[in-house]
Design a protein that fits this description.
With 148 residues, this protein is mainly α. It contains 6 helices and 2 strands; from the N terminus they run αααββααα. The chain has one domain: Orthogonal Bundle (Arc Repressor Mutant, subunit A), CATH 1.10.10.10.
Length: 148
């Protein structure tokens, strides 16, 4: 099962805003060039982040800017803002056969495990802040620069 790419796009866009925003105007076109997607995809991501209060967006080509400190934004915040949070992350076929002993009981047997797995993933996302991601990105960039 894959989580929508909206999450990865929103994370990428927000990292670009935090890391490059002091040097460049963070327009949807600029961010789209980093993500390598159509600017419309970025505009949707920015609208989601704006609605969550994570960023502000100036009208026209004013660009996006963070409204929250990177230490206060988690991967879970972006996951939720991007609309990836669902009551049940795991999709199930709608109507197992009620006349089959497996089909009749599959939800009772499997659902608690899937709910635990989803909660564990969401709890991990809550532990990672954008400050940590920025630090890791900075270290990676420094390593690449020094090894060139």
């Amino acid at each position: 099962m894959k989580i929508s790419s909206r999450f990865a796009v929103a994370v990428h866009a927000l990292l670009a805003i935090y890391v490059l925003g002091s040097e460049y105007k963070m327009t949807s076109d600029f961010i789209a060039s980093s993500v390598n997607v159509n600017p419309v995809v970025i505009r949707r991501a920015l609208l989601s982040l704006k609605a969550a209060g994570i960023i502000g967006v100036k009208a026209g080509s004013g660009g996006a800017m963070p409204l929250m400190n990177a230490e206060n934004v988690t991967l879970y915040d972006v996951y939720a803002a991007a609309g990836c949070r669902e009551d049940n992350m795991f999709n199930f076929h709608d109507e197992p056969n009620p006349n089959c002993p497996v089909g009749k009981n599959i939800h009772s047997v499997l659902d608690p495990y899937l709910e635990t797995a989803q909660a564990a993933m969401e709890n991990e996302l809550k532990k990672t802040t954008f400050a940590e991601l920025i630090k890791n990105l900075d270290l990676l960039i420094l390593k690449l620069c020094c090894n060139s």
